[in-house]
Amino acid sequence: MGDLVCSHRVGSSNGERGSSGASEPPATVTARARLLQTTPSELGRHDVAEVNLLMAAGLPGAEELDVARCLATIEEWTGVVAAETERHQMNFQPNPSCPTVAHYRGYMLIKTLRDAFGLKHHLLPDKGTGFVGDIDRPSDGNSGFEDARPVFIHGLLGPERVGSCSSLPVLYAAVGMSTN
């Protein structure tokens, strides 16, 4: 994986200002600038979670973003997912709705993250998805994505545990790739 880790909180140092007006530490600005200069094949060598977090830096809703803390949370959650998956593996029996071990592992990844950490979708989901809705679409006609928290994974990793169809799969991929 690439060497991009930034251990600064985005709003904590004098640096370049993002679109939210929050000051970004030079390490974040430098890491993001290096990412933006990579080729598609080089980008694939970087940690998906770190790329997502660095791209969120400076946006509205990311003023308190702490990349290192978020990556540590993912590492912690990866351990919980691995332990829960292993603990229940002996009960797994292939069946039409869960025919393979890979399917079981994917199911356990999503179920454990949702149940153990209270992940929520920022819009009220369709009945039966297993996610608890957090907020309705704004009545002012906005999309509801003016805040970076549901769009990028720091919203799922923060105290509100809120995400969307763009951030949930990234978190699943980050944790899933770390469990192997």
Give a verbal description of the structure.
With 180 residues, the protein is mostly helical. The protein has one domain. 47% of the residues lie in helices and 3% in strands. The protein has helices spanning 26-36, 40-43, 48-56, 67-89, 101-117, 148-151, 154-157, 168-179; strands at residues 120-121, 132-133, 162-163. It has a three-stranded parallel sheet with strand order 2-1-3. Helix 4 (67-89) packs across helix 5 (101-117). The chain is globular, with a radius of gyration of 18 Å. The two termini are 15 Å apart. Mean pLDDT is 81; it is low at 1-21.
Largest sheet: 3 strands, parallel
The ordered string of helix (H) and strand (E) elements is: HHHHHEEHHEH
What is the rounded distance between the termini? 15 Å
Total tally of structural domains: 1
- Could you report the average pLDDT, rounded to the nearest whole number? 81
* Strand order in space, largest sheet: 2-1-3
Q: Any idea what the radius of gyration is?
A: 18 Å
Strand content: under 5%
Helical residues, percent: 40-55%
Q: Please identify the structural class as seen in this structure.
A: mainly alpha
- Spans of at least 5 consecutive residues whose pLDDT stays below 50 are 1-21
Number of β-strand runs: 3
Shape: globular
Count of helical segments? Answer: 8
